[in-house]
Design goal:
The complex is a heterodimer of chains A (548) and B (334). In chain A, α2 packs antiparallel against α3 and α14 runs antiparallel to α15. Helix content of chain A is 66%, strand content 0%. Chain A is mainly alpha-helical. Chain A has a single domain, classed as Cytochrome C Oxidase, Chain A (Up-down Bundle), CATH 1.20.210.10. Chain A is globular and about 70 Å long. Chain B has 334 residues and is α+β, with helices and mostly antiparallel strands. In chain B, 34% of the residues lie in helices and 19% in strands. Chain B is built from eight helices and twelve strands. In chain B, β6 and β7 form a beta hairpin. Chain B starts with 5 loop residues before the first helix and ends with a helix. Classes of the chains: A mainly alpha (548), B alpha+beta (334). The interface between A and B is large, with 98 and 97 residues.
Chain lengths: 548, 334
């Protein structure tokens, strides 16, 4: 087709040394097969979703500022918190690091020209958009009030909201996730540059590889579950509804069989980003490279075996809960191994506290809290009281926001010069970090106490005794919101008038920093041959470490 | 009655005395296993604090000590399998201990003693109702004698709910089509708040209640007070039939869905209900008389008034004397 503007085909081949952003025109984006441009389109899509989900979060916190009605009625509140969850999980956080950032960086870190299946890559993006349209349709037609978990029989029989299109959205976006996973696995196996052995694979690639395995294996289960739910709601097949002979606990098992591994789809790539940032800004190879890489695979595997801890109080047999409690504790081991290795990497490094590193260290701080509070919930006896309270809400926000979002934003700061060819205002970036870090802790630290004192989650109204802690949390959400606005302004300013970025602004020895900023159309000016590892700072010359 | 006013939305919950705080992080303890629970909680809490301070302390110290300085290069990384194994194996033993302590505690408290007082708990959107061993029932309030083992046998008549009593440190989902159980011994007289902890939606109309208002109060009282209460609820005492009926309606949570001021809730209003002509969902109509009221309480879905098909009222079980009293009361709502 003449209209297809591809870096790999077409009659008027553009200069492969020019920036991947050089070509202009909408069609050059919509029909592109370039992994970087697809990554940028994903990035825009997930950022818009993040904004939308963030507005929902601010509304939820605003409603909880006072007991009783503050700005909306109970039904609206139920819709708003459900949409917050659905948007953040399915539209933002699952595609955020792998599909957006991974799409751009994976082939570059592998020293290759593109992913293994560029057309499939574009198809994944359009499937994601198609799914998002269903989500939008559901929102226009009233949204959902089921929570992002769609528990039956509420979702199949009682909810009057637009459940079917929203489930359709999650179902369709699952295919996007699967196809991206297949693509990345093939890319890591078959597309590595000459000399890039498995032992030299950057830790971000290891993390994406582990994530892709989970995406391919777990997502079909979600698809089947959601399909069964649609069958029950539309065709009245009794699968989960006991009044038709089904079992609602079965839905919980099916749902979490995907959704717990999905937690690792979210956090494992974040750990990959943090590994990259810590090495670059410590100028040191990661301590225990092999153990960090293998712990990603360990988490991917263990992630499949612990779904039952979401059902500790659901009426499972005591012996099932015992097995799941024991398995859940095991997750602590690879998580701990990662944290210990990062700390050991800092030891005797040459540490530079620029904004990406602030996010890297912020991740360790927040993820440690998220991980340790996970121990409370893995302990069967302790979980019984904390289950479905704000303690759980705070715990998973420390992992998902304090972990994944902080790493995502850190990665954005880190690779921004490579993506855009521009630098940003470091002063504003630090102010934004401070606001986000403080705002986040104020918002969610208070929720741990709310939960342990007995405040259940998904409540529109609350007892007066919980008022102060809820208000602290709401004020925190404003600080957090302002932090993200400052960051947005900073990035927009950078795009409009940022200083031109050098090839290697951080003085890193990793492969992606040897090639121009922004990335050239074919990623490298000449085909790279890898002769050393991505973190071999001890082999680097002064010239390689200089920040230009 | 329920209104959009925040304080009143929680009317049934507010009847509880403000629980005194025992510790900063956990509410007052009212059951035999509570103290053990709190000990476990603070064990894991201090374990976490020590780990957190260690990790973040080391991180901050290294960041300061090894900050980038001119002319100082990072030392090459030397991997140490010994160190890796150390911080894999030591935490492994720690989690074995944690798992063991916690499961041991859990399983010892999961089993009810043989002479436990058995109470049926039914969850329906959006209230809890209880049935004592003598067959008598009430809604939103549960009386329990202090220091007597209790076993709750729980079910749900519509969606998933979860029976959560923070003061007892206990929680269990109620699942439609299945029984679930909780076992405990209340050890302290007073009022314990019950919450629903599994999301179950909300009524479309303001004030019609929802997941957030699905509460109840457990009143832990002396054996003598408990016996007295059992006598009170099994008969009218010195009340007139319609007064007793009103009390029964109130306690069963009927006002959650049925108003007395003529406004339509999840169900039809009680105002002027007796003798009214109602159009039914199947197109026919009915004059509301004693027999229709009786049927609609015992089998609510037999004849549903048009426009209230989604009400999903659960069936209620009353003795004939109580039914008579409720009907007598409904006749007075004009």
């Amino acid at each position: 087709m003449a209209t297809v503007a591809s870096p790999h085909s077409g009659t008027a081949a553009p200069d492969p040394h020019a920036s991947y952003l050089a070509q202009k025109g909408l069609a050059s984006w919509l029909f592109t097969l370039d992994h970087k441009r697809i990554g940028v389109m994903y990035l825009v899509a997930v950022l818009v979703s993040f904004l939308l989900g963030g507005i929902m979060a601010i509304l939820v916190r605003l409603e909880l500022l006072t007991p009783g009605r503050t700005i909306m009625d109970a039904t609206t509140y139920n819709h708003v918190f459900s949409l917050h969850g659905v948007i953040m999980v399915f539209l933002f956080i699952i595609p955020s690091i792998p599909a957006a950032m991974g799409n751009i960086m994976l082939p570059v870190q592998l020293g290759t020209i593109d992913v293994a299946f560029p057309k499939l890559n574009l198809a994944s993006f359009y499937i994601y958009c198609f799914g998002a349209c269903f989500g939008l349709y559901s929102m226009i037609h009233g949204g959902v009030d089921t929570g992002w978990t769609f528990y039956t029989p509420y979702s199949s029989k009682f909810s009057n909201s637009a459940v079917i299109p929203m489930i359709g959205a999650a179902f369709i976006m699952g295919f996007s996730s699967i196809l991206t996973g297949v693509n990345f696995i093939a890319t890591v196996h078959k597309m590595r540059a000459k000399g890039l052995t498995w032992r030299r694979l950057p830790l971000f690639c290891w993390a994406l590889y582990a994530t892709s395995i989970i995406q391919v294996l777990a997502t079909p289960v979600l698809a089947i579950t959601l399909l069964l739910l649609i069958f029950e709601r539309v065709l009245h097949l009794g699968i989960f509804d006991p009044s038709m002979g089904g079992d609602p606990v079965l839905f919980e098992h099916f749902f979490w069989f995907y959704s717990h591994p999905a937690v690792y789809i979210m956090i494992v790539p974040a750990m990959g980003v943090v590994s990259e940032i810590i090495c670059t800004f410590s100028r040191r190879a990661p301590f225990g490279y092999f153990f960090i890489a293998m712990s990603s695979l360990g988490l991917a595997l263990l992630g499949f075996l612990v779904w039952g801890h979401h059902l500790f109080v659901a009426g499972m047999s005591e012996y099932s809960t015992m097995v799941f409690s024991a398995l859940t504790f095991l997750v602590g081991i690879p998580s701990g191994v990662k944290v210990f290795n990062w700390i050991a990497t800092l030891y005797k490094g040459s540490i530079d506290l620029r904004s990406p590193m602030l996010y890297g260290l912020g991740f360790i701080f927040l993820f440690t809290i998220g991980g340790l509070t996970g121990l409370f919930l893995a302990m069967l006896a302790v979980d019984v009281h904390l289950h479905d309270t704000y303690f759980v809400v705070a715990h998973f926000h420390y992992v998902m926001v304090g972990g994944t979002v902080i790493a995502f934003v850190g990665g954005l700061h880190y690779w921004w010069p490579k993506f855009t060819g521009k630098m940003y205002d470091e002063g504003k970036a630090r102010i934004a970090f401070a606001l986000v870090f403080i705002g986040f802790n104020v918002t969610f630290m208070s929720q741990f106490v709310l939960g342990s004192r007995g405040m259940p989650r998904r409540y529109y109204d609350y007892l007066p005794e919980f008022t102060t802690l809820h208000q602290v949390s709401t004020v925190g959400s404003w600080i957090l919101g302002v932090g993200f606005i400052v960051m947005l302004v900073m990035f927009i300013e950078s795009l409009a008038s940022g200083k031109k970025a050098t090839n290697n602004p951080w003085g890193s020895v990793a492969l992606e920093w040897t090639t121009p900023s922004p990335l050239p159309l074919h990623n490298f000016l000449k085909v790279p041959v890898i002769t050393k590892g991505p973190y071999d700072y001890h082999l680097a010359t002064e010239e390689e470490l200089s920040e230009d | 009655m329920a209104s959009v006013n925040g304080m009143l939305l929680f009317q049934p919950l507010l009847d509880a005395k403000e629980p005194a705080s025992d510790t900063a992080q956990l509410p007052v303890i009212m059951s035999s296993s509570g103290a053990g629970y709190d000990a476990l909680y603070y064990f894991i809490y201090w374990f976490s604090v020590v780990f957190f301070v260690g990790i973040v302390g080391a991180m901050l110290y290294f960041v300061w000590k090894y900050r980038r300085q001119k002319g100082v290069k990072a030392a090459p990384t030397k991997d140490s399998t010994k160190l890796e194994l150390t911080w894999t194996i030591i935490p492994f033993f720690m989690i074995i201990v944690m798992f063991h302590v916690s499961f041991d505690f859990y399983i010892h408290n999961a089993v009810a003693s043989e002479n436990a007082l058995e109470v049926r708990v039914r969850g329906q959107r959006w209230n809890w109702s209880f049935q004592y061993p003598n067959g008598e029932g009430e809604g939103s309030v549960l009386y329990l004698p202090v220091n007597k083992p209790v076993k709750l046998v729980m079910s749900s008549s519509d969606v998933l709910h979860s029976f959560f009593i923070p003061a007892f440190r206990l929680k269990k989902d109620t699942v439609p089509g299945m029984y679930s159980q909780l076992a405990f011994t209340p050890t302290r007289e007073g009022e314990a708040q019950v919450f629903c902890a599994e999301y179950c939606g909300a009524g479309e109309k303001p004030g019609s209640g929802g997941h957030y208002s699905m509460g109840a109060i457990i009143k832990v009282v002396s054996q003598a007070e408990y016996d007295k209460h059992m006598q009170e609820i099994s008969g009218p005492g010195d009340k007139k039939p319609d007064e007793w009926g009103k009390e029964l309606v109130q306690k069963s949570g009927c006002y959650t869905c049925h108003s007395v001021d003529g406004s339509a809730g999840t169900g039809p209003t009680y105002k002027g209900i007796f003798g009214r002509k109602e159009n039914l969902s199947d197109g026919s109509s009915v004059d509301v008389d004693e027999n229709y009221l009786r049927e609609s309480i015992l089998r609510p879905n037999a004849k549903v008034v048009k426009g209230f098909e989604n009400g999903n009222m659960p069936p209620f079980v009353f003795t004939d004397a109580k039914l008579d009293a409720i009907i007598a009361y409904l006749k007075t709502v004009k």
